[in-house]
Amino acid sequence: MIVKKLTFEEFLEQYPDGGIYELINGEIIVVEPTRAHKNVARFLMLGFNDEIRRLGLDYIADKNIIIRTFTDTGEKRGRNPDVGVVNASHWNTNVLTYGALIEPIQVAVEVTSTNWDDDYVDKLDEYQQLGISEYWIVDYLVIASRAYLGNPKLPTIFVYQLVDGQY
Questions:
Q1: The domain spanning residue 109 has which CATH number?
Q2: pTM of the entire structure?
Q3: Among 54, 51, 33, CA closest to 107
Q4: Does residue 55 fall inside a structural domain?
Q5: According to the model, what pLDDT value does residue 115 have?
Q6: How does 122-154 read in b/e, with b if 16+ C-beta sit within 10 Å?
Q7: Most exposed residue of 1, 46, 147, 148, measured as fewest CB within 10 angstroms of its CB?
Q8: What is the pLDDT of residues 47-60, one digit of tens each?
Q9: Is residue 141 within 8 Å of residue 107, measured between CB atoms?
Q10: How many domains, in total, are found in the chain?
């Protein structure tokens, strides 16, 4: 049986109601975080929103911002960072659209889980290629390898900033 790979546009058209999904290798993949994972992401999102309001910035922080990324081979993917920060003026230019953002957002945050290597490798590369100014990896579970976290392994937040197109 041959399974047809979805295009990015088909992914958006078929995006299921409820839940969190990403487009990986032409397939809709369900992303089901644990409650602890959701708690960390919510804490960060609320913190971003508190600072945005306190400083009067033109940003929105949300957990449901779908962005179109590309792999190094040119495959389109649909990513849904655990927390995204986007320019509010840009977000509100077309509030009735269901589509994903195709422009880089200001900050993407991924809270690690069992597929931690996606955050450290694939998403890092895709977010860099898209031009996302800042990318955070929050490894509260100390789940990544010692190559990333050192020895002894400790909970870590990595903050990557885009400088001349590179993190």
A1: 3.90.1570.10
A2: 0.91
A3: 51
A4: yes
A5: 87
A6: bbbebbbebebebbbbbbebebbeeebbeeeee
A7: 1
A8: 999 999 999 999 99
A9: no
A10: 1
